[in-house]
Amino acid sequence: MPNKRSKRAHIQKFCCPYCESRLWRLGGQRHYLYYSNAAEILTNLDVSRKKATLIAAQGAYIDRLKWIEEFFCEDHGKLWLRLHQNEEGLISSKLAGDEDWKSSTGTIDPSTPNPSVSEFTYRMSRRQGSYKRYYG
Ligand SMILES: [Zn+2]
User: Fold this and answer.
1) What separation in Å is there between the alpha carbon of 3 and the centre of ligand 1?
2) 76 C-alpha to center of ligand 1: Å?
3) Which of 8, 19, 28, 33 has its CA 20 to 30 A from that of 110?
4) CA 107 to chain centre
5) Distance 113 CA to ligand 1 centre (A)
6) Can you give the pLDDT of all 136 residues of the chain as single tens digits?
7) Domain boundaries in the chain?
């Protein structure tokens, strides 16, 4: 039986946001959040405006303390949680939202369909068509 009063912080358990039962960690990839401009850095990190601008000038900042990870609930199936590790090493979790997906590394939200490539292909073929006409 899990003891909720346990102070062993290094063994961290995550609960399903729907039914509160314990989630299984699938051990998948961590999709870290990143911030690509000074305004985002300023919102998410405890830094001065000047420091935020400096960080932004070096490219996107990857936040190693915040990431999206896949979990599994026996009742609700696969869940994506946005995790946040604080200075003490404790990790808080919530369901990953649209904003989290937008700023995570190398991912697209699995709950939304992939952007269609057909429109791109269509435009490309049209461009090739006009190219031919130009030289034809
Ligand atoms: Zn559940």
Assistant:
1) 19
2) 4
3) 19
4) 7
5) 24
6) 555 554 554 568 899 999 999 999 988 888 999 998 999 999 888 899 999 999 999 988 999 999 999 999 999 999 999 999 988 889 999 999 988 888 887 555 555 444 444 444 444 444 444 344 444 3
7) 24-135
